[in-house]
Amino acid sequence: xxxxxxxxxxxxxxxxxxxxxxxxxxxxxxxxxxxxxxxxxxxxxxxxxxxxxxxxxxxxxxxxxxxxxxxxxxxxxxxxxxxxxxxxxxxxxxxxxxxxxxxxxxxxxxxxxxxxxxxxxxxxxxxxxxxxxxxxxxxxxxxxxxxxxxxxxxxxxxxxxxxxxxxxxxxxxxxxxxxxxxxxxxxxxxxxxxxxxxxxxxxxxxxxxxxxx
Length: 213
Description:
By secondary structure, the chain is of the alpha/beta class. Helix content is 31%, strand content 22%. The protein is built from 7 helices and 10 strands. It has an 8-stranded parallel sheet. A two-stranded antiparallel sheet has the order 9-10. Helix 2 (41-49) links the parallel strand 2 (26-31) and strand 3 (56-61). The radius of gyration is 16 Å and the shape is globular. It starts with a strand and ends with a helix. The mean pLDDT is 91.
């Protein structure tokens, strides 16, 4: 089974080029000031415009206001919004209706109790990103290089497309796909030489491992 790959947190033209050449399906741009992968609207626009057709451009935001989203979408040709904060199901539905773009909602998972919220978000989002829950007090809601117990979602039936994230690397992504049945996977820190600096070889290795899982 070949899993579709999202490479998130792109900050440089060379990273975008590597993602396009690797065969990844999604390219992610982070609009969150605390992240080492944060890009300005101008940077994201320039990076997005270099992407070849067929690679979906995803904008990651954290508890963004309408004004912030208006500013981003006025300049950056995004194909999807990824909500990675504490957005409620109602807010997810509101953003989806306001902007007319597919919305992917990230849900942090640490234990079985965290799975209850998945159904509420499945009802309103176009896709679900199942990520490792950030540690208490962490500055970043994702991109922390942490994984969770994949057996928690192994037998789950999904009503919407979903994506697995959290601590994935070229070395473990095939096992993660095998354990969870994921058909889409998301990586950021797992293909970096340093925070915010993607490594071309790791990007290629990750996509190849996901393709041959």
